[in-house]
Amino acid sequence: MKSTFALLLLSSLVFSCSKTSDEIYTYTFQENAQLIIEENYDGSYMKYSSVVDGNNLVFTYEFQAEDEKDIADDEYSEVIRFEIQPDLNEFEYSTTDLEAIKAVYSENCFCFFGDDNKNTSPKGTIKGKKISDTEWDITIDVVFYSDDAKNISNIFRLQE
């Protein structure tokens, strides 16, 4: 009896851990680009960004959460973007420099971001080292909107 129970317990653990996640993480950069920051609207502190043609490198981290098909309006994603000059091979920008590289964090969801106390400049460090013409090793250790801490370290690849 004990061995049957142990076998059932082990089987349930194996099968319960086999679910694949539909979460998506992307780490990319674009050449000949420029970052445009879209300021607050309707009392929201959240800033958004878009990438247009320009002369810089624009780096984008994006996370898309798994969507529950039976739950309406549960979609969620987040994006961090920043831009640098294209002639750099290595960089490190800290708190006072983060606005100059237009470091921006955005959440996309059915949410309202109305706390005026969170309309603050980012604090922390973003650094990177060029690995090749198509890859950068980037580390983001920044607090956005006074309490949204983001720690990301990954290889960012040229977006085709």
Sum up the structure in keywords:
9-stranded mixed β-sheet, 1 helix, 9 strands, globular
Summary of the model, kept short:
The chain has one helix at 2-16, and strands spanning 24-38, 48-53, 56-64, 77-84, 90-94, 104-108, 123-132, 135-144, 148-158. It is mostly beta strands and 160 residues long.
Report the average pLDDT across residues.
Answer: 82
- Please count the helical segments: 1
Residue share in helix = under 10%
Number of strands: 9
Radius of gyration: 20 Å
Which regions have little confidence, pLDDT < 50, spanning 5+ residues? 4-19
Strand content: over 45%
Mind describing the biggest β-sheet? 9 strands, mixed
In total, the number of domains comes to 1
Categorize the overall geometry: globular
- Run of helices and strands: HEEEEEEEEE
| Separation, N- and C-terminal Cα atoms | 58 Å
Structural class determined from secondary elements: mainly beta
Structure commentary:
The protein is mainly beta and 160 residues long. It has one domain (22-158). The protein has 1 helix and 9 strands; from the N terminus they run H-E-E-E-E-E-E-E-E-E. The protein has one helix at residues 2-16; strands at residues 24-38, 48-53, 56-64, 77-84, 90-94, 104-108, 123-132, 135-144, 148-158. Strands 1, 2, 3, 4, 5, 6, 7, 8 and 9 form a 9-stranded mixed β-sheet that branches. The radius of gyration is 20 Å and the shape is globular. The termini are far apart.
How do the strands and helices of this protein lay out in sequence?
Layout lengths: L1 H15 L7 E15 L9 E6 L2 E9 L12 E8 L5 E5 L9 E5 L14 E10 L2 E10 L3 E11 L2
Parallel strand pairs: 1-9
Antiparallel strand pairs: 1-2, 1-3, 3-4, 4-6, 5-7, 7-8, 8-9
